[in-house]
Each structure stands twice: as C-alpha cells, then as structure tokens.
Write a structure and sequence with these properties.
This protein has 17 helices and 27 strands. With 604 residues, the chain is of the alpha/beta class. Helix 3 runs parallel beside helix 5.
Length: 604
Amino acid sequence: MAHISAVVTLRPIRFAFLVKPNDSKRLLEIFQINTCLWGGKFNPIIPIFGHVPKWWDRDDYKPESALQIVNGYLDAFEPDFLVEAEAGLAKGLGYDPDRILQLSAMLRRSSEPRGQAGLDVFDLYKDLYKKQFQFVRRHEHNIVELIPRTNALKSFCACLAGSFPEDEDLKYFGQGFCDAFDPKQVELSPEALAELYKEGFNSALQIGHSNIEINYQDHTDPTLFVMDAQDSRDLIDYWNLRAVRRNVRPIPIQWLDVLSPYCREYIEHCYRPLRGNPHGVMTHANVLFARSLTSAAIEQLYADYLRVDRDGANIRQDWYPPIWRPSPHFTVRNTRPILSAGEKTFDIQIDDDRTEVRFDNLYPDFAERYAASNARWANVVRFKDWLNSSRVATVFPCDYRSPKISRFHALQGKILSTTEGFVTFCKYKNISDLWRLSDGTTAISEWLKNNGVESQISDAGQATQQIINTLGGFRGISSFAHAEVVKLLNKISRRPISPSIQYQEFQNKIKNVVKGDIWRNKNAETLVELGAVELGLELKCAKCSTWGWHALRELDHVVACGLCLNKFSFPTIDPSSSQLSRWAYRLIGPFALPDYARGGTLRP
C-alpha cells in the first residue's frame, strides 16, 4: 500500500482587472473594489491596449506585441477570474467565459445576498472588531484614512491606502471600516506623506489582507517609485509593482521638492550591510522612475532632489521591471507572492485498485457559513509522492485559463492546473472533498485526448514504463541515467545464451563509470536492490562445456544445461572453483531486452 501527501493551502480568490490605461474613472473604481475584497491588494491590474504605446518603454525596446504583454501579465499572476472594466476586454485571451466577470457586479449591494465571487471584507471587519478592536488598547493604533486635498489626488489616495465606493448601496463598506477601527483621518499633503512613511501606518488596503501570510518571491532592495500621482498609467504600474515586491514607496513628482529631504534620508538609511552576510554585501534604496517621466527630465530630477553624497548609496533605475516577461532560462523567474491563510497536510493511503484521496477543504474562520457565491475562496492542493510508489499522476501541464484536465470527479466544481498546484474554488465551510486520481499513463492519454490528440502506448513506451516501475520511479532512475551505464547494460543484453555478467566485473564496471560522482557512488547496489539484475550462478556444463546462468531457486544436486538440455551434477566436490562455477548477475525484465530495451531508453 502506497502513501502520498496532499498539502492544502487556503488563499483568497485572485482577480485580474482588465482596464484601458487611460480610463481613470474605472481605475478609481477598481481601487475601491479591491479595498473591499479580502486580499484585494494583490490582485493585478492589467492594462489593455491595441498597440504597444510609445511610453511603454523609454528606450523604445518593444520586442513583444500588445497581446504578448497581456498574456505575459496573465502568466505571471495566473488569475482565477478576469474582471472587465468594460465588456469585451477579455476577448481572445482564451479564458473560460464562466470566469469572466464585470466590474459593476463585483461587490454585494446592500439589497443583495452576495457578490459574484470572492470574499468581501465586511465579515473580516466584524471578526477583527470582535477579537481585537472592541477592547481598550494600551497603545493607539496607527490606522488612517487618507483624505485627498483635491479630486486630482483621489485616485492616488485610493491606490496608496484604499478607499470605499460612494454609491448609496455600497456605502456600508466605508461605514463598517469607520465603526470597527475608528481610523484617524489624515489630509494628504507632502509633509503628511513623509510623516506617514517615517512612522508607519495601517490603512483599509492593508487591513484587507489580514490573516494572510505573504511569502514574497522577490528579494529586491527597497524601492522609491518616483511617479506622477495624477497619471493613471503610473498608478497601474505602482499597484502591480507593489503586488510583487515587498517594499515600494511612491513619491509623487508633484511633491518631489518637499519630499526630497525624506528621500535622501531614506537612501542613506537603507545603505547598510546586509544582515547576516559576512562578505560586505550592502543593501540599497533603488530609485525607480515611472514611465510617464521623460528621459530628459530624469537626470535633472535625480541630481536636484535624490542623489546623496555617499559613495555606493546611489542606485537609479530608469526602466520599469518587465513583470510580464519570462526570465531567461538560466534564472528563476520572479513571480507573484505566495499567499496563505492556512495550510494542512493530509497523509493518504493509496490502494492499487482504488486511487481515491479524501481531504478537508480549508476556510477562513471569519467567513459566514453559507453564501450565494460559488467561489468565495480558493484551496490550492499539491500532491507529494516522494518515492513515486503509487504511480499516481500528481502534476499536470499548467492550464489555468480554460482547463482541459479531468475534474477527478471532485465535489467542488472546476479544478485549475497551475504552477501553484491544483486550484479549486470553495463555497461552504466544513466541506470535505473526494478526488479520484489516475495513473500517469492514463492521465497523459486523457489530457492529449481532451486537446484533440488520440494516443496509444508504443512498444518502446511500454518498455520505458516497465523500467520506471522496476526502479521505483524517477528517483531510482538516477542509478540508470548515465550514458556508460546504459551502454553496459545494452552490451550485456546482447550476449548469447544468457544476458549475464560476473558479479565482481559488473560492480567494478559500474563504479568505474561513475567514479568521482558522489551522488552516484551506490549505483551498482541500487540496480541490484531494485531488481534490474538478479543474482545467480554460472555453471560450466559437464556435457558440452558451455557456461550457463542458473537462478538460485533452480540450483539442485542435478541441473540442466540451457544449451544442450542435458542434465549434469552440481560441482559439489569443488563448488568454489572458478573453472566450474562463478557468481553472476543476469539482466531481468525490461533491462534484458536488446537494442536499448527496444527503444525504451535513449541511445547514448
């Protein structure tokens, strides 16, 4: 009976908002909606345009088309749902129509039971108030509500700290925030912004990802993002950059003269030895200029307001990080943070005749038990089969847009195959799920069939499958994955009468092949233990003088020659004589097939 582990992680639903980069009205609405969504701060905003605009790259480097850029954003974030700021923006992106939503239907109106998908923060506010904020605190909290001085800064305030919809039937979100946390209202000015950065602050946008652990995959230094606070393009760029980086502080170009002392002090403060690094590595504050700023203006702005008189502290970046672009093959791609609001591991026994796995879905404690939405939160399921003894397919090709993988007969609806794992959407609390998994061969055949390709296993494929099964999966294959080892086994398989080799010669040849490789110092032992070869005795026939291999179970006082078929007596007088007998290994199973297991292994 085999064992596998199912690691289930709870996270919020991830939305990607599609909007034209100059649509400032709908962009403000997107900021407000994400303020009201659990985990909304980490939902990407994807700019949609017909052609790559000139401002997209300051150096006029445009290797991708507009569609490639959009698809690159999608592949970087792998959203569960797309939200169109206006109908038709998701056309041609290959998404399941059931997972394309409209901006106007995202939040629950006061007269409705629930929104279309995701969890709003209203239940979270009630839970936080009940557990923390209803009590008298020893220290005053630092929760603020930013008030823009002018309407031109309204979107910047919403992007930086969040804001709430002003529609009459959606005002209950803002009222709930004020009732639960009694935030301090701060009119945003350059002086106030510098003070907030120095002292630290909490806001509705930050509270919206309470109870979520954020594991950033990006390890870049702190960033000062110099931007136009009134330009929707820069607001989108800041929003997405903050979604993948740990520490990004926006610096409005309109206030750069007043914020200059703070910026220089911050750059000086960040230039210090990296904690725990004994090699003199220093951290820096990276000054990143937004794409709306012209190259001609950057040099003067940097010299006048940002450069410090300290060698090594000045780091300037004039190009926006290409979040949408895959990293070179020799590096690990910087991806979105991994969000987790809970995780549990289930150890599951797998019978040969029954590949069912049962596990409990995880849920946020603050959520109500029932709701009308079919997708309130997401569970990410990852299967781990370290020994590969179950032969169960634990991974599938990534297909998060319109998945064609089997649903595993799951109870919870659609399953997305992503780089995180299998994503399933949950509606209720305290629900278990039962999945019926397939073996690897069946899973691949079904996936090909769902993509319009009929397939069947070839003779070489069957031999390969037998080799993998014999060696206990891909971990055991490492003892076989060497060109010289493959050549040696193929040479043995072509020997006449019996594909066997004297035991000491076999061990010596294997060890000489992998000599100096510390990871392969037990290849010979592994091949023997896992059943690639079988130990037996080669005996010289007393009738025809031919050497023949005999399995241990066949040895007796009288043995039969495999060539002349005559019987002869076992050399009991001198059994250790090398002239009459010698211990030897014989290839068995698929390894005994000639011509590289009939194509089951690649010819070196």
